[in-house]
Amino acid sequence: MWSLVAMPWVTAMILLGSASSQPNMTFMPKFPLFMDKNVPGELELTADQERAIKELMQSVSQDLPGGGPQRVLVRVVGDTSEIENLDDEIDRILHDKQRQRLRELWLQRQGLMTLTQDSVAKDLALTPDQREKVRRIREEFGQAIMEQGPVDFQDPDEMKRHAEKVAELRQETQKKLGQVLTDSQKETWKKLQGREFKFATGGE
Predict the structure, then answer these.
(1) Which of 20, 56, 77, 152 is the most buried (most CB within 10 A)?
(2) Can you tell me the distance from the alpha carbon of 34 to that of 30, in angstroms, rounded to the nearest whole number?
(3) How far apart are CA 134 and CA 179, in angstroms?
(4) Distance (Å, rounded) from C-alpha 66 to C-alpha 134?
């Protein structure tokens, strides 16, 4: 498979906002999963599928400042329409079983952050009150990320400190979101994630 730098998940999400506005912290595309070297094998991609997905990934990537030729990251875009289309195009490349497994991996990777997604909220039968609690928790998370200020992606030490802080905030937010669910919903959540998968890169 191709070589993509394994950036912290939320850092990649920040890049989906415009440079001057708050990033869309509730938009969580599936395509960054393909940055993990173990994912293509788990999905049992054919050579043609790998080639097609690689071309799509390259369309939303650029060289990492100061890095080598194989170090790329998701470029800053003003809105999410291009990325939404990318997920749709990848879905068309995959067959039903692969799409289902990719969703399971996405749920495992993003965790309870996905409660903001309508499809997940419906799967768990979240009540209006629960949806509002989720919205407020995610809003607080987004604000906390913004308070960290801009990140200099050419400074490895700064990127590392930022990633560690984001991981800490994510862990706290995941716990808060878990408290919103009932025991029955927690059981459903576990089933939705499917068989546990070992990612090559950390996600928390």
Answers:
(1) 56
(2) 8
(3) 10
(4) 38
Beta bridge partners of 74: 61
At 175 the pLDDT is 97
DSSP string across 53-100: HHHHHHTTEEEPTTS-TT-EEEPP-SSSHHHHHHHHHHHHHS-HHHHH
Residues with Cβ within 8 Å of 112's Cβ and at least 6 positions away in sequence, in order, are 174, 177, 178, 181, 189
SS3 at position 18: coil
Between CA 87 and CA 75 the distance in angstroms is 16
Split at pLDDT 50, 70, 90, the class of 150 is confident
Do residues 36 and 197 make contact, with C-beta atoms less than 8 angstroms apart?
no
Residues counted in the chain: 204
Instruction: Indicate the helix (H) or strand (E) that contains 149.
Output: none
pTM of the model: 0.79
Maximum CA extent, the chain: 49
* Residue keyed to tokens 């440079």: 19
Q: How far apart are CA 8 and CA 124, in angstroms?
A: 27
